[in-house]
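Example 9 (inverse folding). The structure is encoded as follows.
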């Protein structure tokens, strides 16, 4: 089945924020690890129409947040349901996001930032054509952590 994208509902936001639990070092990604991020994610006005639920059939499997930098450039933040991570689902998940962004917005350049400890995600992003750019320090989760920015130029939409 193909993935579908719908504006994230409040119910879905609360489910992600309070029930999605990542294990070990990935607990870094639990929504309630940072009160400010949590408050923004739970605020429908803050989410606006830029955060989308990703469904497989009718099942919530992830989300993506879009930040439009220009007509051609978009920054994304994404999350996959914890029980789906680490088992080879990321490639199809991210490919569906990139295809959807290309088809919906015609965007050519996609940026994202990833915590540098998350080698698993970095490998996935590189396998789909993202190129490491800069490292920066980000204040989050009660500390300051290094993040890597990555960029992908879409000349043609990726194939499924």
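The amino acid assigned to each position is listed next.
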């Amino acid at each position: 089945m193909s993935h579908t994208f719908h504006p994230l509902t409040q119910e879905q936001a609360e489910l992600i924020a309070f029930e999605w639990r990542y294990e070990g070092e990935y607990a870094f990604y639990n929504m309630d690890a940072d009160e400010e991020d949590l408050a923004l994610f739970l605020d429908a006005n803050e989410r606006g129409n830029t955060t989308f639920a990703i469904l497989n059939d009718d099942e919530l499997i992830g989300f993506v947040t879009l930040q439009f930098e220009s007509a051609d450039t978009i920054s994304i933040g994404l999350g996959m349901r914890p029980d789906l991570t680490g088992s080879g689902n990321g490639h199809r998940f991210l490919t569906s996001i990139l295809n959807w962004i290309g088809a919906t917005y015609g965007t050519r350049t996609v940026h994202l930032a990833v915590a540098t400890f998350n080698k698993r995600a970095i490998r996935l992003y590189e396998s789909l054509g993202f190129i490491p750019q800069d490292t920066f320090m980000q204040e989050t989760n009660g500390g300051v952590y290094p993040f890597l920015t990555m960029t992908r130029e879409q000349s043609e939409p990726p194939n499924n």
